[in-house]
């Protein structure tokens, strides 16, 4: 069995953003030389997510509105976590959107459904954040 590990960094200009990282994960699968196996991709931070969904701007707006209803950023003082930090909402949003995805690798390619794309969801950005890709197989 082979294994391959890669980290990359995303630094958003805004506090919240959704970024399609499918190409980056695809590239890592190519670099790994692994033809049959599994790829894990996860955020290495507790205020951002990696998830799979549709690359459609209306849906991304809907996610933003929905997450703000569930865990509004402000007022900051509504959260016990805030004080030293102001990112309690980002921890909650990350929990809802998930930490990682696992995708099958078949014939050296990501075995995704027709509309499935891999996204990085940033909820406390404006600083560099690390994302891990780990691929195992043969
Ligand atoms: Zn925090």
Q: What attributes does this structure have?
A:
8 strands, three-stranded antiparallel sheet, elongated, alpha+beta, five-stranded antiparallel sheet, Jelly Rolls, 38% strand, 138 residues
How does this structure look, described?
The protein has 138 residues and is of the alpha+beta class. It has a single domain (2-34, 43-137), classed as YjbQ-like (Jelly Rolls), CATH 2.60.120. 25% of the residues lie in helices and 38% in strands. It is built from three helices and eight strands, in the order ββαββααββββ. It has a five-stranded antiparallel sheet with strand order 1-8-3-5-6, with helices on one face. Strands 2-7-4 form a three-stranded antiparallel sheet. A hairpin with a 2-residue loop joins β5 and β6. It starts with a strand and ends with a strand. The mean pLDDT is 98. The protein binds zinc ion (ZN). Residues 81, 85, 87, 91 line the site of zinc ion.
